[in-house]
Amino acid sequence: MPEVYQRKAVVEYIIRSTPIYEFVTLCELTPLEKMVLDCGAGGKYPPLALFHDRGFETYGIEISKTQLERAHAFCKENGISLNIFNSDMRKIPFNDESFSFVYAYDSIFFLKEAGIAVAMSEIERVLKPKGLCFVTFRSVDDTMEEEFPESDPVGIMLGNKKLTCHEDDEPDIYFQRFKMLRRKKRIMKTLVKGEKGKRAYLDYIAEKI
Fold first, then answer.
1. In the prediction, which pLDDT does 2 show?
2. Residue 14: pLDDT above 50?
3. What pTM, to 2 d.p., does this model score?
4. What is the C-alpha separation between 4 and 1, in angstroms, rounded?
5. Mean pLDDT on 58-84
6. Are strands 99-104 and 127-139 parallel, antiparallel or unpaired?
7. What is the CATH number of the domain that holds 48?
8. Cα gap 13→46, rounded to integer Å
9. Cβ distance 166 to 137 under 8 Å?
């Protein structure tokens, strides 16, 4: 395995994406087939690389062509295949009960409220019974909320002008046919363009009944 892959795919995600590391560890404790889907899988450092490194069969969908290109560049650079392609989590192109594990990390809140409901229904559909899902929602306590630029291609594609935020426990409605395993608020102090603030998330890990 290339040294650069070890550095970016393991160290980077353990340090910067602790929730993903916690989720993959929880997945490994189950007897289910190691098959995972990432909804919103693009970017310079695709989190699926951590699952690939641990022997999972990986698949990902990404609606932004720019983010998809970045993920493909990462795969090419490191000589791996994560099976990430252009698609929409509101219409996941896989059969019912295809995956043991599904997650949407830092992605579902780009959708409008109605779109989130559809995406959550799709995540439930493709997840196997007793399969695990991990979804991060943006909290209303986030102080760094900003509107998308009018020319933003993802905002235009999704018909949304800003991130969708939720009150505490508000996302519970999406997990009525799940057993809740973990639910917590995660707050991180941040500095953007010299302005202090905080990023606030609602993390959900649940098992499909």
1. 44
2. no
3. 0.88
4. 9
5. 95
6. parallel
7. 3.40.50.150
8. 9
9. yes
Amino acid of residue 121: S
Q: How far is 61 from 64, CA to CA, in rounded Å?
A: 9
What are 54's two structure tokens? 């641990």
Domain around 127: 3-208
Among 77-81, 123-127, 146-150, 162-166, name the one with the lowest average pLDDT: 146-150
Distances (CA, A) of 193 to 83, 121, 190, 201: 35, 37, 10, 21
Dig out the tokens for 153 from the structure. Answer: 């291609």
Cα–Cα distance measured from residue 33 to residue 156, given in angstroms and rounded to the nearest whole number: 37
pLDDT digits (tens, 9 = 90+) for 26-40: 999 999 999 999 999
The answer to whether the CB of 8 falls within 8 A of the CB of 49 is yes
Long-range pairs, 72-81, Cβ under 8 A, ≥24? 73/44, 74/8, 74/44, 74/45, 74/46, 74/49, 75/46, 77/4, 78/2, 78/4, 78/5, 78/8, 78/9, 78/49, 79/2, 79/5, 80/5, 80/49, 80/52
**Quick one: which of 71, 61, 151, 73 has its CA closest to 108?**
61
- In this prediction, residue 10 has a pLDDT band, given cuts at 50, 70 and 90, of very low
Work out how many domains the chain is built from and give that number: 1
Residue positions counted in the chain: 209
